[in-house]
Amino acid sequence: MGQRVRPKTGKAGAALSLALLVLCGPVQASSEAKASPKGDAAFGEYLSGTCVTCHQISGKSTGGIPPIVAWPEDQFIAVMNSYRSKDRENQVMRTIAAALNDEEIAALAAYFGGLILQPDTKK
Asked: Containing domain of residue 96, as a range?
């Protein structure tokens, strides 16, 4: 059997702990970034054609279809993931969400989140 390694104490142990913390920090940060990638708004605009077929680019709700313009990115991602996991009821959205990967959803979230609601010109 292998030899058991005892933890170091004193200055050497503190230095080793600090070194491990520094080395493991980037691993943790990259896994968090992977879980919620920052979206490319230009790519999202390219992908948005399917979305704006039903969701109005003006940000107005029509026929019971909710607006998605100016949504916070984290909310957009959470909603799309809930359609992918079938936690939300809407077969059309489940199908669309299932076809998108994390990068594409993040890109759409960045695009729609960056849009500004158009003011209502009717009075």
From this structure: 37-114
* Exposure string over 88-105, b if 16+ CB within 10 A, otherwise e: eeeeebbebbeebebebb
For the chain, the first-to-last Cα distance in angstroms comes to 82
Number of domains in the chain: 1
Any domain includes 14: no
Instruction: Report the C-alpha gap between 114 and 50 in whole angstroms.
Output: 18
CA distances from 71 to 17, 36, 45, 83 (A): 42, 16, 15, 16
pTM confidence score: 0.68
Q: Across the 123 residues of the chain, what is the mean pLDDT of every consecutive 10-residue run?
A: 48 42 38 61 97 93 93 97 97 97 98 88 50
* CA–CA dist 104, 50 (Å, integer): 12
